[in-house]
Design a protein that fits this description.
This protein has 11 helices and 9 strands. By secondary structure, it is α/β, with parallel strands linked by helices. The chain folds into 2 domains: about 110 residues, no CATH class; about 170 residues, 3-Layer(aba) Sandwich (Rossmann fold). Strands 3-2-6-7-8 form a 5-stranded parallel beta sheet. The longest helix has 27 residues. The two termini are about 40 Å apart. About 30% of the residues are buried.
């Protein structure tokens, strides 16, 4: 099973050496070492990993389904469902030129980094992509309530982008004050958000009136069944028993995860995800999979790059 995953699902982005080093982290503090190793490797076969090819296809679908299709639908409604496809396309191109895609957080981080592939796979102009600092400037940068000034008056729509939204605590805190400043000066601007993945709760937070007011969407919504230890979890079917005991794996995740991420042994804000990408692993995922061992020795099997908002 793992051999197939390494070759096909993971595109050789995870090596046998990494897997072996990771399994050796589990030294028998919770159960017999052989039992811990067995549970760790079984959990690895249930981990949902998105490699480069799949991520690029998802970025294509995100643009088509959550942006292009919605705008074309609006255009058709405005033109009384005209069958003139040339007209519809021309109007769509006008709407696109008045749009800017904005990566959330630091330009070097995972969400903003993915915008390069998003642009490439959907054949979009580089001019459509900005960061918040180049899209808006402060009238008085030294005043804590300084107003934002739009850099390009021709732009009527800003689409904020991230790869995954977990609790939305960090992204919400980062954007809330900035969105309030933008709306205060430009109340007619169309402010939207889209991501590849979002938890149901995180999406609800982003759709609150003081954030995106119903205009936050995602390609895949993660309900509580994507939490590894939820009663309705989808990762570990009953057919894995008796060799795999979920309570044993949870005890392992808690015991080994707490020193790695104090207070967040099961992922940031109890995320409990078993999910990662080729470019990054969310901190909502169990830290035993991705923590680099900066505080205690630990060999990760997947990589994570911290975000700064």
């Amino acid at each position: 099973m793992l051999r197939t995953l390494v070759t096909h699902a993971w595109d050789h982005e995870v090596t046998w050496g990494q897997i072996d080093a990771w399994a050796k982290n589990f030294t028998g503090a919770v159960a017999n070492p052989d039992i811990e190793h067995s549970h760790a490797l079984t959990s690895l076969t249930r981990f949902v990993y998105f490699g480069k090819r799949l991520v690029r296809e998802m970025l294509r679908s995100l643009y088509r389904d959550q942006f292009e299709a919605l705008l074309i639908q609006r255009i058709r409604k405005r033109t009384r469902h005209t069958r003139n496809h040339t007209l519809v396309r021309a109007m769509y191109e006008e709407e696109l030129l008045a749009t800017r895609f904005v990566g959330v957080g630091n330009p070097s981080e995972s969400g903003a980094h993915l915008l390069y592939y998003f642009r490439q796979i959907n054949h979009l102009s580089k001019s459509l992509f900005v960061d918040l600092g180049s899209a808006f400037s402060l009238d008085d940068p030294w005043h804590r309530l300084g107003r934002f000034r739009r850099a390009d008056s021709r732009v009527s729509r800003y689409v904020f982008f991230d790869d995954l939204v977990g609790s939305a605590q960090q992204v919400g805190d980062y954007l809330q004050r900035n969105l309030a400043r933008i709306r205060k000066r430009y109340p007619s601007l169309d402010l939207r958000f889209m991501s590849l993945f979002a938890t149901t709760k995180g999406l609800a937070v982003l759709n609150q009136p003081d954030l995106f007011d119903g205009k936050a969407t995602c390609l895949f919504e993660l309900d509580d069944s994507f939490k590894a230890f939820d009663a309705q979890q989808r990762y570990f079917p009953a057919t894995l028993a008796p060799e795999f005991d979920l309570s044993v794996f949870k005890a392992m995740a808690m015991h080994y995860g707490e020193p790695l991420q104090p207070g967040h042994a099961l992922g940031y804000r109890d995320g409990q995800l078993l999910l990662g990408f080729t470019h990054n692993t969310p901190d909502n995922t169990l830290p035993v999979f991705w923590n680099e061992g900066r505080t205690v020795p630990w060999a990760p099997v997947f990589v994570r790059y911290d975000k700064e908002y």
